Structures are given as structure tokens and as C-alpha cells.
Amino acid sequence: MKLRLSYGLTGNSDIGYYDAYGSYTTTNLYDGQSVTLASSLPNLALTWETTRQADAGLDFGFFGGRIQGSVDGYTKVTDNLLFDVTLPDTSGYGSATQNVGSVMFYGAELELHTVNVSTKDFTWKTDFTYSFNKNVVLSLPDEYEYTDIDGNEAWRIGGYTLGESGYRFGGIAVGESLGRIYGYKTSHIIETEADADAALYDTRSHGYRRSDGLSIAGRKDIGDYEWCNREGSSKTADGDEEINSEDMFCLGNVMPTSTGGINNTFAYKNLSLSVYLDYALGHSVYNYQYSRCMQASLGNCNWNLVYDADKCWKQEGDETDLARFTPNDADGGNRNYSRTSNINVQKGDYLCLRDVTLAYALPKKMLKKANIAGLTISVSGNTLGYLTAVEGISPESGSIGTSTGMYDYTSTSSKHFNNTPPTRKILFGIKLTF
Hints:
The protein is globular, with a radius of gyration of 28 Å. The chain contains three helices and 27 strands. The protein has helices at residues 193-198, 288-295, 364-368; strands at residues 2-12, 23-30, 33-40, 49-62, 67-79, 82-86, 95-99, 102-118, 122-139, 145-147, 153-157, 160-162, 167-169, 172-173, 180-183, 186-189, 201-202, 225-227, 242-243, 249-253, 258-268, 271-281, 284-286, 345-347, 350-361, 374-388, 425-433. The protein is mainly beta. The two termini are 41 Å apart. It has a ten-stranded antiparallel β-sheet with strand order 1-4-5-8-9-21-22-25-26-27, with no helix packed on it. A three-stranded antiparallel β-sheet has the order 10-11-14, with no helix packed on it. Strands 2-3 form a two-stranded antiparallel sheet.
């Protein structure tokens, strides 16, 4: 056994060349004349993120090396957190990159290497890794301080205020984690005209009905979603309940709580087989590509519709979780799919068959006469398939429509709705040694 202790300081300079200085753009919208406008806000105080990390680990080995591994626990605190903060409309800017406080990441990691079988002709070895990770916001600048409904000091960037109670939720808050996804929850699918008439006023619905061909803002149609109403949220001017941005709920977190992998290597004489799988658990993906497909937004693009379009509600009695299909849900429909909801926020857990390699080393006796020291023939596959609930895209590249910061809706490599499918590779190799 061996005990390890470590402490380190690292920086994150993920800042554009001119982010601190701001920028300008030109336009000809001022009476047809060319003018210069400020497009991004300068921030000369912008600085690197810095991360302080402490680690305690234990390395171990038993049974003559048949079992080896390590266990680590870590905690790291990031100060001067970089974040794109949304600004009020009166500022003339949409957002600005700022250093907004500190956050703590903590967790544990395990590595295990075992020799399961070892004979003259056959061996079987296993390598297993597991990591558990969480985070919590420790501090935010004083300008984001407020008094919560219990009279306590609190700090929050963005988010929502619930009705007249003053209760705030969402955004980034001290004592809460980064990466949470907020959106609407479906209550049920409206199946009759009477249910449509009784549905809550929906501030995002265009109110189009096929029965009369009219669009009356706020009303619903047969086949639309009725959304869950959050208790205590704002009401209409007449005092009736309504669905608005206050009626959103936490639908998940983009950051996996557990990640790792397992590799098994088998060898029989000159033949070897290696199979590696990796996984991520405990997170969600906002599948914006799926959302856009279900919107069928004919006004600005053409889409290959997902097969789920055929599963949409069509008539009373249909057992489905998908509302009716509308040719232009975002602009002419009632926005069943063009909002973040539990329909397009999908459980991101996955198990990936990452690498499989089969290799054969020709016997040295066969190669000796040709003065060849070794010849190995192999075939391998990479990223062969996923076991996941994410639809249509890789669970490692879920997408978003817009981003308000590096810790919003990320855990993904792509930030739009035209993701490239994951590359599946089949490789053939010959290794020749003289």
C-alpha cells in the first residue's frame, strides 16, 4: 500500500483575444447610411479562472500483483468563474463575459486492475475505472445578492421569480449546482374540445385551432399538451391560473455524476481479444436536434423527420406521450415542441462499445527463415454502438439552441442542431518487426 497526497494550482484562460476590450460592428440601418455600433461590452477586469485542487489517494496491490488499483478522493475550488452573464435590455448588450464567483467540485475515483485467469496458454485481464463527481457554487459577486422569502441572504444570477411570493429558482445560485436544465413538464394531452376550452391560458401558445382556423393567443387545441402549473406562479389579469416561464421545473443536470469504463483482454496462445466499454450516468441531454425535427419548422429549413413523428397523437384514445404533429409548431402552431420540456430533455445515461480489437501474432518459427522478428495482423472497431435513451444523436454530443455560458447545457461538444453523427471506425492493421 502507498499513500499519496497532492495539491496544485491551475488556470483556465478560455478568454477570446478581444473579450476584455469589447468590439464594434457596422450597419447601414440608419437611414441607409453606414454607422458603427458597439456589439460587445468591454471588461478590462476580466481574468483567468484559477483552480486549487487537493487530492488524497491510496495505491494498493495484493496476491503478487494479481489485484492492483488505487482509490482517490479530491476537492477543487475554482475562483473567478468565467460566465456569459445576460444583461438587461436597457444596457444595449445581450450578455457579457464576467468573472462571477467560485465553485467547488468534489468526488472520488477508483481504478482496479485484475488478472482473473493466468495459465500457460490463456490469460484474462480486467481494467475497471469509476469516478463520482459533484459540484456546488460557493460564492457570487455582491451585485447578485438578495433577501429570500425567509429573510436570509442569498445570491443568484438569472433564474425566475415565482408570483407575488418572491421565491426565486433557477439560474446560478450559491449552495446549488451548476448545469441544471429548467423546462416545462407535460401534464397530459388534450383530447376533446371541452378540454381545450378548459385548458389554462398559455402565454407561449399561438392559439391556433383547426376547427375554426383562427389563432387566438393563449388558447389550446385538441392534441396539444397541457403543461403542469407550478403552485404559486403568476395568474392572468382576471385572476385565473396560466402557464408562463414561472411554470418551469428542474428537468436534470448536464453533468454526469458517474463516469468510467471497463476493459477485458483475453489471450489464447498467439490470439488476443480486447473489448473496452465506457459509460456515463446521472445526467440529461437537451436534445435540440430532436426538438427541431418535431417542430418541422418549414419557415426556415427542411428537415428529415424523426420516426417519432408517426407516434404523435392523432385521435382520442391514442396512448402516446407525444402531442399532435404540426407542420410549423414554432411559428404557426401552439409550441408543443419548441420549448424546453421533459419531451426533448432526455436521460443522457449511456454505455458505449468503444473499442474492440482482435489480433493474431504469427508463430516466430514461421518467420525465422525470413529474418522477421514479429508479424501481427489485427482488426479493430471504434465507437461501434451506444446503449442509451437519447434519440437521433450521440449522447456525447447533445445540442442546444443557445448558450449563456460554459456551464449552461454543456457536457456536449456541439451547440447547434446539425450534429455530425459519431464516427464509427473499422481499422485493419499489420505490424511487422525485423
